[in-house]
């Protein structure tokens, strides 16, 4: 029988470390069987995101064309909220936008949203198309379940005026005065600018 020395043992442990580490890292995903939303809910979430997204873009485009980006900037921070409120009212879903780098602190991601945004970045790096990317989960505690859904928002050319790497001086000044803690700059076309985030509470009625 061949005995291995401590040194060899140490070396083989070191070699297998990356393997163990990667197994450990993937364990939470394997262990916690994540429940995704029922089909009907997913369909609702998708259609809200679709209309919210195209409304926002439309408002943005029109106000950029008619009033210029400075005016659009003022309009947008008010309009996004009212468009979101309208979508939520129509559907009982709570609709918002968030990002790893927010402009408006009211849009800060919670822990769940942060981990989903990080997951989106990884999936994008691995080559997945943003167009079809989404994530949903049912989070249950007690008799309450929260249905959560997120979909990435890609950075388009239109967005660079206010979120790009080179903002004009007047836009920069305006952004700084409205959002002193702004982090939502430095994006390039195709980057994940943020995500739509939806949630809906479900209560189980005891029978
Ligand atoms: C005219 C300037 C302007 C343009 C163009 C613009 N945005 Fe914004 N964006 C803003 C402002 C201002 C806010 C903060 C809104 C608020 O107060 O809720 C914002 C917020 C956001 C947020 C919410 C998260 C956060 O940072 O607070 C997302 C997501 C976002 N923008 C994506 C986009 C995308 C995608 C485009 C291009 C399709 C775009 N924006 C184009 C000005 C702009």
Class by SSE composition: alpha+beta
Distance between the termini: 66 Å
Low-confidence stretches: 1-20, 26-31
**Helix content estimate:** 40-55%
Number of discrete helical segments: 5
Can you tell me about this structure?
The chain has 207 residues and is of the alpha+beta class. It has one domain (35-203). The chain contains 5 helices and 4 strands. A hairpin with a 2-residue loop joins strand 2 and strand 3 (144-154). The chain is globular. Residues 1-20 and 26-31 have low confidence and may be disordered. Residues 57, 60, 69, 72-73, 76-77, 80, 97, 99, 102-104, 107, 153, 155-156, 158-159, 161-163, 184, 193-194 line the site of heme C. Heme C (HEC) binds at residues 57, 60, 69, 72-73, 76-77, 80, 97, 99, 102-104, 107, 153, 155-156, 158-159, 161-163, 184, 193-194.
Task: Please write out the topology.
Elements: H1 6-31, H2 39-91, E1 94-98, H3 111-125, E2 135-141, E3 144-154, H4 160-163, H5 169-178, E4 192-203
Antiparallel strand pairs: 1-4, 2-3, 3-4
This protein binds heme C (HEC).
Residues 57, 60, 69, 72-73, 76-77, 80, 97, 99, 102-104, 107, 153, 155-156, 158-159, 161-163, 184, 193-194 line the site of heme C (HEC).
